[in-house]
Amino acid sequence: MIEEGYEKHKGGAFRLPGLTQWIVVFNSPKLVEELRKAPDDLMSFTMATEEVTRLLCNFNIHWELISQNEYHLPIIRNRLTQNLDVMFPELHDEIVASFQDNIPLSYEWKNYPVTETFINIIGRTSNRAFVGLPLCRNQEFLEIGVQFAYDVMTTATILYILPPWLRPIVASMLTAIPNRIKHAEKVLTPVIEDYREQKEHETEVRQSKVFLSWILDEAKVEEQSTGRLANRILVINFSSIHTTTNTFNQALLHLAATPQYLRPLRDEIEQVTKSEGWTKAALDKMRHLDSFCRETQRLHPLTCLTSPRKALQDHTFGNNTFIPKGSTVWLPSLSTMKDEEFYPNAKEFDPFRFSRVDIDQSRRRRDMVSTSPEFLPFGHGKHVCPGRFFASNEVKLIMAHLIMTYDVKMEIEGVCPADFCIGVSRISNPKAKVMFRKRAM
């Protein structure tokens, strides 16, 4: 339906039926840029996502408090991003250790379930930055995060199709999420107390490389309770790990289906790490690897629609597209990124599409984290994903280690399993497996 509307209404806009109202899809780079520049008191991202937030608040009162005070977002956007080079050695260390535990080296080919294996590796790596050692390797804690995300998505789907008056009643009978939160608080409490004690007893400001210590620094008095902090860490896990895992999984599946690209990727990684070592500076120079991951994002965005904005007043855009107050506008991420007008041979996987561009073109517009009206995996505009720099570095570092350490292939040569679609969401096939062995050459 989205694809049909996109083809019929190029350069304009079209409507789609939602569960509770019609939604509007902007179908033009010019309209996308107008929407990006529109002030929040006209086209609001916060109000567009409010219904989802309200659903989550039905079964987690802390979520409402978190949504009202998102002080963690500037920390992600600024402090986490600015400290990526400092955190890099620890992230690399965790990746090496987690691969040893999850995919032991062997010269024999062995099949591994992609999602199950890499949600653990990415969960450990992410939490090395979020909560540090030893909790990032605690399987009980990692499992809470995985199950919490599953419970949230399942419960939110159930509540979404119910009338608003019935949602709190049904939510009160669904106990999985409150139980997960209590479990997470129990596991996180000793770690939070330890960070708090260290902070109180140090005379100088603690320069920790762990995200938890930063939110302790910034949290106001009412946000300092162990329960509030544990909940925020759980929400950050939910928001980051599953999206990063999906991006990585899609890249891995393409690599396993087209192993001929292992050699040029290895050559680049070997050349760069030989002169730079395993550093962020080295990762930034891996242009083919960055292009490989960006091309994967282009073909496999997490959703077919992105970057919602709710109209807080009637407004007419430049091409006379009228948006009445209360309407929600979305951007067609998948259709845009498969459009031949913007990408030649757009439906084909071309891993070095973005590393072959003219050297005079702006490099920043072609790397994994850059956004534009034609490239929307992270959204576009002032509400673009704040954690995209951390996520892209994590995906590329894990890919680089894998490429240098293992050979990979699909069990059925060259066959990349189809995405699994639920509504407008698209995820890597949850049943997909990839064969690994120790690198032979």
TrEMBL record:
One of its GO terms (molecular function) is monooxygenase activity. Keywords: Heme, Iron, Metal-binding, Monooxygenase, Oxidoreductase. Belongs to the cytochrome P450 family. Heme binds at residue 385. This is Cytochrome P450. Its cofactor is heme. Pfam families: p450 (PF00067).
